[in-house]
Specification:
Radius of gyration: 20 Å
Oligomer: single chain
Structural class: alpha+beta
Largest sheet: 11 strands, mixed
Strand content: 25-35%
Number of strands: 18
Length: 374
Amino acid sequence: MSQEHLPLLKAVPGDWRSGCFVGRIDSGDGPTPIVIRDGTAFDMSGVAPTVSALIEMGAFDGGTAIGDLDSIDTASLLSPIDLHCVKAAGVTFAVSALERVIEERARGDHHRAVEVRDRIEEALGGNIRAVVPGSAEAATLKDVLIADGLWSQYLEVAIGPDAEIFTKSPVLSTVGLNAEIGVRSDSTWNNPEPEIVLVADSCGRAVGATLGNDVNLRDFEGRSALLLGKAKDNNASCSIGPLIRLFDAQFTMDDVRAADVALTIAGTDGYTLNGASTMREISRDPEDLLAQAMSEHHYPDGFVLFCGTLFAPTQDRDEPGRGFAHKPGDVVTITSARLGTLVNTVTTSRDAPAWRVGIGALMRNLAARGLLTA
């Protein structure tokens, strides 16, 4: 299967020379953290052996210069995170809330989706977009929907006090720029989810952001919310990149709050779909989502948090009323002005390269390279 390969210089945002970025490469020796600052890439393995440790130390100076972005072969580029827990917030936008309700009501059957969508939108009358989660207005709307027989567990997390926070993917299992991304081979109704991903240290403090694709299987989750794990956590089903942009005077959480995320899907069958998501329409503030993810947990190596998406494709692909589903060979491109571009080619989770570098393999590699110290 041919893949789209975007050079790193074209994947980074236009103002990359004024920002500080963190990533990982593997040029043959093993995973190596890098920092890009003042237009130059630095090998940081002598400062900290992992990206997680680098962020925890806040040590983004020093390192060994390895050249400009042209000197980094994208074939060596990995997902920019390593030991972080991979968390995700679901149903954080009104449109995605409606689509999750539709999945539930349709029981994963795409043929019923149009009918269910029309009925729910008529009953809501557009009110959900203006409702603040956890507010008195939200409680009133909940009573109305219950009376109409339309209340759903998805609406509970959309407008109730508690956000949906789940574990998307195991530590070290994410893929990066230009990698193949996996969709279960037995799924017939699915879609990409272009999202902003916050990167937090062990205290739950956001230190930067990147882009991500939180692949969703609408048929599996639609049949039962208890299938969330099977719908979300599959081989190669979580993409992050191209790099982590660190917060500084030029890039802050307010830039995340105002970020637009564009998506293009280009199929080998000539099919093209364009979509967009804007963080300005998110129902919960990113800092609130971060706090709910942190909750009473401890993440000694930090965590990343997918913030959810406004994008929910309803455009038919093969036949009227069939909706959208991926096909192998689809090229998914996610772009945001201050974070760059993330490109992946779709395959099945069965056929995607197997995930083999787990925590044990990483520790053995770092020890053999003399990068672990007491």
